[in-house]
Amino acid sequence: MTSTVQTPDYTTDSFFGLEDKWLSTADGELTHYHELGEGTPILFLHGSGTGVTAAANWWLNLPELSQYGRCIAIDSIGYGQSVVADGTEYGIREWVRHAVRVLDALGIEKTWIVGNSLGGWLAFQFAIDFPERLLGVVSMGTGGAKLTSALKGHSNPTLSEEGVRRTLEQFVVDKSLVTDTLVSLRYQSALNDTATDRLAEVVAARDRDRTELPLDFDVLATLEIPVLLIHGVQDVVIPVSRTWELLNIIPNADAHIFSQCGHWSQVERADEFNEVIGLYLGRQLADAH
């Protein structure tokens, strides 16, 4: 695919330890991503907190999980450093289609998806819209749930370092994980390009689809792919009941629940998270072969 879009002069902060890659995924669209490992594709889809990026969501996980497959973590359109074409619309189906464009541009026919929050919601919408492209799903704190008080605050983010700090502190039980460095990096990411206007657009699109495009449970009840659901008991953004709800609908779903853990299980319980996911993916990939 050819594109006239110039690659931005940008380098992911060394704090995250990830190299930058860029991929033309549509006319006027340039996707920013990170890639580690070889073998079975595993697409990582981030959540939707203020200043979120693929790096800021997965930096503690990609190096470990890359031993199980080809890990590809993208900045979804409207987030991070991915460049979007004029007139780009946002929403659950648009984010899913963007993920499909990434796969197409990389020549990937089928993939696993590991998704956090919004990314988990996208993973299941992907399973509904493009089941033939999916090998399996790992979803943490799956998005799309009804509004909680924390989610209402999530829908009206304050674009300041203090606002970013408040958002991140909602994600964890252990507030010490929300360091000044992490807050600063997330804030700088939120200021990218026209972040104030863009942030409002993506938040509005996400919350619109919460009511206009909820996950179709009738279709999810027919899924034949393996699914692992992960949740923190103390998740105040997406209550753990969301996982219980999905667990009772999806035929081949398993679940792992972390105690003393909030919405950010891949960060707050990173070592155990990597171990759980690694064992699960390792077993599933071995069975597939």
Automatic annotation (TrEMBL):
Hydrolase keyword on record: yes
UniProtKB keywords: Hydrolase
Segments forming domain AB hydrolase-1: 41-269
Gene Ontology MF annotations: hydrolase activity
Signal peptide stretch: none
UniProt-listed InterPro entries: AB_hydrolase_1 (IPR000073), AB_hydrolase_fold (IPR029058)
Domain of life: Bacteria
Keyword set includes Phosphoprotein: no
Coiled coil: none
Name listed for the protein in its UniProt record: 2-hydroxymuconate-semialdehyde hydrolase
Organism per entry: Rhodococcoides kyotonense
